[in-house]
Amino acid sequence: MKTLLLTNHYEGAALDILKNAVNGDFNLCVLDTADRECLLKAVPGADYLLVSGRLQIDDEVLTKASKLKMIQRTGVGLDNMDLDAVKRHGIPLYVNAGVNAGSVAEYAVMLMLSCLRRSYFVNTQMRKGIWKKQATGLTTYELSGKTVGLVGAGKIGRYVAGLLKAFGVKLLYTDKIRLDEAVEKESGLEYVMFEELLRRSDIVSLHCSFDKSAGALMGEKEFALMKDGAVFINTARGGLVDEQALIKALDDGKLSCCGLDVFCEEPLSPEHPLLKREDVLLSPHIAGVSFDAFSRMMQAGVDNIRKFNAGRIEEIEKDRVV
Length: 322
Hints:
Blueprint: E1 3-6, H1 12-22, E2 27-30, H2 36-42, E3 48-51, H3 59-64, E4 70-73, H4 83-89, E5 93-94, H5 101-117, H6 119-127, H7 133-137, E6 147-151, H8 155-164, E7 170-174, H9 181-187, E8 189-191, H10 194-200, E9 203-206, H11 220-225, E10 230-234, H12 243-251, E11 255-260, E12 280-282, H13 291-309
């Protein structure tokens, strides 16, 4: 029986979901702890890698993985993959394209609403016994009628656009590749350049990939272009944002609130200044990890490995990256 190695440590419900997906078809190996030493010790016995978490899959790991036949990501992010090393070792790499797009999109819209309606602040007031109906209510805003700028119009960005249509918003987007005119019309999206999107949007939401070599997409210059009192949402990758520039934008009133599910360093340090603010909604990179999405991710990832193992490679070519 072939060995499937998860490059992370799962326990409880997460492990149960993975075991159900494997269904005894592979010898499932899960890291005792999610650290590099444990990965390097386990990887020589792996026929297949199911890559989850933040451990880097690089030349050292792949050199030790002498039996490795294929790598499957649980999601689509490749920031923990050394693609050059993967190519040199000739190992095919697959992703779970779009499997959690709906979960991330719902979460992004939830953050928009929560920022506008100040849900964290209001909940905190209530728990302190403070009941200020008009005074509090008049500090909140509706989503309806706002201009929302989506940076990235892939599966997630377009899903967000579909959800937002019901709220009666104006939708702008920017991307490296412009959508077909028919798709723009159907989605209610107007294409603009990045700087114009920043200037015109009441809410800016990131749905693009992160290129380490390009650095942060959002820095002081970019935040300065935004409307005073705008809302900023990031459910994509933490490295897209210069966090010090973000904090400055909040301090200066350029941003009224922001919702962040991702950070430059994860997990977030207990001393991080973002944790001390009431104008920031924070969550631990869970936008795409609802029970429903996680179950789909594990099933889809294991199914790809199962098909590869059975020689049905043509059925999963759409998910291949390398």
